[in-house]
Every structure is written in structure tokens, then in C-alpha cells.
Amino acid sequence: MDELIKYAPDLAEGFLENVKLSLVAAVASLILGTILVAMRVSPTPVLRAAGTFYVNVVRNTPLTLVLAFSALGLSDQLGLVFSETPRTNSFWIVAMGLSLYTASFVCEGLRSGINTVPLGQAEAARAIGLTFIQSLTLIILPQAFRAVIAPLGSVMIAMIKNTTVATAGGYLADAAAVMKITFDTTGASIPIFIGLILAFMALTMPIGYFTGWLARRLAVAR
Amino acid sequence: MTENGDVTPLVQMENVNKHFGALHVLKDINLTVSRGEVLVVIGPSGGGKSTLCRTINRLETIDGGKIVFDGQVLPEEGKGLARLRSEVGMVFQSFNLFAHKTIRENVTLGPTKVRRQARAAADTRAMELLERVGIAAQADKYPAQLSGGQQQRVAIARALAMDPKMILFDEPTSALDPEMVQEVLDVMIGLARDGMTMMVVTHEMGFARRAANRVVFMADGQIVEENTPDEFFTNAQTERARDFLSKILTH
Fold first, then answer.
1. Which among A112, B9, B49, B114 has the fewest CB atoms less than 10 Å away?
2. Where are its TM segments located (chain A) (predicted)?
3. CB pair distance less than 8 Å for A120 and B94
């Protein structure tokens, strides 16, 4: 217990990094996932193929490899640099890798949501003269989102927990990295494990409850 | 039929063909719809009636032939097609009201998003139309809270809100409980009297007799016979049509 109390400030600082990564990745992956699903259902074969290719490659690659590729490949080899400060740069590299990875799951979640929207909704939208983009953004996606709020909540929960592999992208400041550094000096500590588990549960459980509640509240009556 | 002095047909279909895989659903269809005309399409299920109706706003593409709407060949896709669709109202068998939008929003969506009308003007017009179809009191409800007959009347108001040159009705009363059929037909008869150009795929012979200028009988993907309602119902020329009528009129 003493170790937990002693290192709590460091661990809390690390945990704050997990929270920050989560916030960035949540916003970015929802936006990118929406763009990807628009590509996957678009009438343009090239866009459809590109969306499908992206999802199949990224979704089936282990996250640690996505992050390592982002850091070593995109940043070191290809010169993608967000900041001259290495720590800040690593933060954004990891946030980017995590967003790119999570977006493929958001895309597939939304796509199953689109499948719950009856075909007649799209036909009616086209019949009054809405363009493809208007039909998608005004009619199809709003209903698709509502159908998959709860599963998207699960994707977000998985994403939050995935922030703990930030080390794979060279970012050594998150709670898991701090925990490992702590263990290197104190030895493994069960109270620290439990403390971090509780911290993550405090972050993710409300998301589960909130999205479940929201899904019921916003359900589209048919 | 010469409203505004314009005598060119609103819709001209020439040798239109369509296949669903091996099934030849439209066979060399030649049909014109005049301005202000109410055309009723009847015939056995699977005969191609709905497909015919849906080719006019290109919800179904065609494999061969030509469809001209208001002097212009149907655009294949893109902005041109969207503009054409905004000029052709459509009422579906299953209503297809936007489930996540209120009744009022269903009616104002097209005018505000497609025609870029101001919200206030679109709202005023929507309420007039909802008044006309008798649903004004339900304007802030969602589609699922309305009966089928009410939903279909909203769907008609939604089509009217675009000031269409024509409205297509694809079996508008087939999904309704029997006691709700008449309220929808009454609205349609009102539109017909006001001079709206309409193509109506229906099994409602009463509507055809009261409101149609012309009846087209379709079977097996072909137009078998077309005539005035009186002539068609009392003196059908083809065996196929007489056979069909004998089956439905005895009920």
C-alpha cells in the first residue's frame, strides 16, 4: 500500500496522459471513421475500394505494430514530425496511430448501423432530390449512429484501454509506462495494479452506462 | 390536358427495357403522360407496374430505350438527376417517412435542403400542406406515432412541398389497414381535381373509375391495354385484361 501512496502522484500524472490520448483519439477516430464509412457506401468504386482496403489492413494489424510503424516508419523514416520536442511529438504520433486504428472499428460499427436503416429511407431521400452526401449526412448516418451508440461505446472503451500500449509508439509517459518504471525500482506491487485498474474502471464504466442510456433515449421508433 | 398551353407530353417513354438478371421486367414500353393527366397503372403482381413507375425518377435504371421528362432525357446521375427528382414527387407503398424527424421536418427537409428556402417560409408552407391533408395537429410528432393512413398523407404533403411537376404513387394504399384507405384516396382525388399530373400504381378500382383519365393494364412486363376507365372496366379488349378484371371485380 505504501508504494501506491508514494508513487500515486507520478501514476496520476501518467494516467492523465491516458486520458488526453483517449480524448484526442475519440474525436479523431469518430471523424475519420465517419469519413471511412461514407467511402465504403459511396457510389464511386474507387472510394469504396480505398475504404475497404484501409479497413481490412488497419483493423487486422496489431495495434502495437500500428504504433511502432507510426513512430519508426512514418515519423523517423518518412519525416512526419508534429513537434520538435520529442515527448510532444511522440504524444501526437501515438494519438494519430491510435486514431487511425480505432477509426477502422468505428467505420465497421457505423456500417452495421447503416444496415439497420431500411432501404426506403434512402430511396425517399433520393426521391426528394437530396444528393448522395445529403442523404448520407441528413438521413442515413443520423439513424445509423443511433442504432450503434452502445457498440460504439464498446469501441471507445477498448480504445481507452489501448492507450496503455502507447510505449509501443515511443511514448513513455502514460500510466502503464510509469507503472513499469515504478516496478523496476519497487518490484511488482499489487496495490498499484489495483489502483490503476480502478482508475480505468472509473473512466470506462460510466461510458458503458452513458452510451447504454443514450442508445435507449435516442432509439429511432419505426 | 393543355395546361399552360404546353402540349408536349410531360413523360415520354420509348422502347424502354429492363432486366432483373434473367427476368425481363419491362419489355419495349412506349408510354406518354400528358400534363395534368391522371394515369392509373393496374395489373397482376410481378407484372412490372412498380418498376415502370420507379424508372421515371430513376430509382430504377433502364437497360434500353429512352425516357424524356419535361423535354429532357433523364440525367444518369449527379446534380442533374437530383434536380430531376426534386421535380417528381414520389409516394411509396411503405410511406418511408424519415423516422428520426418530426412530421413538420419531414415536409420542410426538401424545400430547405434541396431548394434552399428559408426555414420560416418552408415552415409556413409545410403547415398549409399538413392542413390540407388533415395532419396539422400532429406536426411535432414522429412518424411512428401516426397511423398508416396519417403517415401516407404526410408523405403526400412531403411530395407536394417540392411543388413537383408530377407525383408518382407506387401502390400508396397497399400497406394500409382497410379503414384507412379512403382517407388517402380522398387526398389523391383532391389532387387529381386540382390538375396534378399523377401516375398511380394501384389496385383501387374505385379510384381509377373516379379520378383517372386513362388506365394502363400491365402484365408480364408489357403494356397489354390502355383505355379510358369506363371503356376498360366495362369493355376490356384483351383476354388477359378480362381475366384479371374478372378475378378482382367479383370480390
1. A112
2. 21-41, 61-82, 91-112, 124-141, 192-215
3. yes
